[in-house]
Specification:
Blueprint lengths: L3 H12 L4 H8 L3 H7 L20 H14 E5 L6 E8 L3 H14 L5 E5 L3 E8 L2 H4 L17 H9 L1 H12 E12 L2 E13 L3 H13 L5 E4 L2 E4 L2 H10 L5
Antiparallel strand pairs: 1-2, 2-4, 3-4, 5-6, 6-8, 7-8
């Protein structure tokens, strides 16, 4: 299930004096697997996990990819038999929870999906041997601390369904808010309100994936601060409202 380089990296952490619990939490690899590699580094002969092929629904995959990059993770089963895909969905937006579960089922028809309730959010969870194939951005460490890039086949799907990808990113790490200011009109101070979209992510690569896709659909944006992308122009907000809208 793990290549030699992954095994060596995990063992290198152990050799630094780290505990098996600590290395397991960081890498998503079970303690039992790491312990076994201390005796035998090379994998035992076995049947390779077959490539699952492309997603069953490209539109749903583009949306799920956006959710995964924002609020998702993949971790190995403790026994090393497969992987869990987990995506955090806030309780404040039950519609997002429903859309997330529907997207998982459309991408992998017949697969089991359940929501594990946490404090303030639910973790939409699904088990499969194939999640790392479908989300090759999976890896050890935090997303913003390592390089992320789409595979060519993923980019083809995003290019075909850019709004679904943007929607997934906004639903995970974005929001639509209403700003306000005051203006003097005919000698009177009047309140003026205007909507805008924000997207916040620590990963430079994920922000670039977002803004590159905005460029392709004709949405103007600007970097509001180090980690925040803003869409505020009226025509661009109108485009976002047509295809995205507020979370619900």
């Amino acid at each position: 299930m793990y290549d030699i380089s992954t095994r060596k990296r995990a063992l290198a952490l152990v050799e630094q004096g780290r505990s098996l619990n600590s290395v397991s939490r960081e890498t998503g690899i079970s303690r039992a697997a790491i312990r076994s590699w201390q005796d035998r580094l090379e994998p035992l002969p076995g049947i390779a996990t077959p490539d699952p092929g492309p997603p069953a629904d490209d539109r749903a995959y583009a949306y799920l990819l956006g959710l995964y990059l924002g609020d998702g993770c993949i971790s190995a089963h403790p026994r090393g038999t497969g992987y869990y895909l987990r995506i955090a969905c806030a309780d404040a937006w039950p519609g997002l929870l429903r859309l997330c579960r529907e997207a998982v089922v459309k991408v992998r028809p017949g697969i089991g999906v359940y929501a594990l309730q946490k404090e303030g959010y639910s973790m939409v969870t699904s088990y499969s041997r194939h999640w790392p194939h479908l989300f090759p951005q999976h890896g050890s460490g935090k997303k913003h601390e390592r390089r992320l890039a789409l595979e060519p086949w993923q980019q083809d799907i995003v290019d075909a369904h850019p709004w679904e990808f943007i929607r997934g990113l906004v639903h995970s790490d974005g929001c639509r808010i209403t700003n306000w200011t005051t203006r003097i009109i005919a000698g009177e101070s009047r309140r003026y309100e205007y909507p805008r979209y924000f997207f916040t992510n620590l990963s430079v690569d994920i922000r670039h994936l977002y803004t590159d896709t905005l460029d392709k659909v004709g949405v103007s944006w600007k970097q509001a601060n180090a980690h925040n992308v803003s869409v505020a122009r009226r025509t661009s907000v109108a485009l976002m409202d047509t295809h995205i809208g507020p979370k619900h």
